[in-house]
Amino acid sequence: MGFATGSVAADYNTYVPNHEASGKLIVNYSRNVNKFALLRYIQITKVTQDQAYYLAITPDTAGRILNTNLADFVWPDGDYAPLGRGNNAKFNWNLVATQRYAYPFLLGRKAVQQATWPLLAIEAGQMAQLAMTARTLLTANLLFTSSNYDSNHTGTATATGANLGGGGLWTAGTSTNPYIQRSLLYGAQQIQKTTLSAVDPQEMVLVISPSMASAMATSAEIHDYFKGSVFAAAQVRGDVPWLNKVWALPDLLYGFPVVVEDASYVSSQLDAGTTTYSYVLDSIASNDAVLVSRPGGLEGTYGTKSFSTITGFFYEELTVESKDDVDNRLTRGRVVEDYVIVQTAPAATFLFTSCK
Questions:
Q1: 220-228 vs 179-194: helix axis angle to the nearest 10?
Q2: Of 128, 141, 144, which is closest to residue 36 (Cα–Cα)?
Q3: Residue 121 — φ and ψ, nearest 5°?
Q4: Which CATH superfamily is domain 26-57+90-353 in?
Q5: pLDDT digits (tens, 9 = 90+) for 124-165
Q6: Rg (CA), the chain
Q7: What are the domain boundaries of the chain?
Q8: Alpha carbon distance 57, 175 (integer Å)
Q9: Of 21, 55, 87, 106, which sits 20 to 30 A from 271 (CA to CA)?
Q10: Under DSSP, is residue 252 helix (H, G, I), strand (E, B) or coil?
């Protein structure tokens, strides 16, 4: 009897490759949902039903003075007191209706049983990230649609800066012609006037796209700002955390927190010949910027007043579900959300267009 033909023992044929050999390394680019930039400039309010009204009160009455000598409010002794006709505040009941979304995935039972990594958890994490990206898309569409604003709450970078000594593209600003600063100050002042100073500039946040951030970072105005700001210099030295390091922008610009909306998405089919990646905001408003109001923290308080530009009314948030389909030996999973994104305070917002 002869011996079977085989291989001589060598480096790569004396073991069966397996996942344990790499320490069960998992390369997974799923993003932590708590790190989405969106959470830094919107407010979330939990609702108990999928339809609800919120009350919008026009603030004008609280600041209406038609005669600077206060003639309308004078009450001489022995005369009737002013009746106050025309002094009542106007209000609107605005109906919001949440929409339910499901982000599903489907796995074979054998795949789940034999996987050497937490397959269900990873798939659920991918869908949770997809849900957050979808939120970002809905919010960006609201914020950067110019028809959502009155004429005194939107304007080009050149026009807004011109109101305070001269305007121009944010990419062309310098220390002597700070176009970015002039635009931001003008926008903040418009918000203050319209809300009768109810919205504090300290509660305003600048939201920009990645391409807008890159363009601003290379301007002489930003370079000079880094030189003159002790806070920005501390970030460069690494003395304090620097959220916008990858964009070479200060976290605080002229007193306004800067949020670069960097959520990205894929617009091509799975296994397409070419995969197309885009930043959500670059696909919607790469040349624009918006100053929004986000008072307090992320969580809004049900039943109280708020000046947040964007409110997400959530009936259900990031619910993860899985079910074993016995007949077909499948595991069905999904992430479910039920919400609506609303621009609750457009008066607390300023949209800058054509900034670069």
A1: 80
A2: 128
A3: -65, -40
A4: phage-related protein like domain (3.90.1690.10)
A5: 999 999 999 999 999 999 999 999 999 999 999 999 999 898
A6: 27
A7: 26-57+90-353
A8: 41
A9: 21
A10: strand
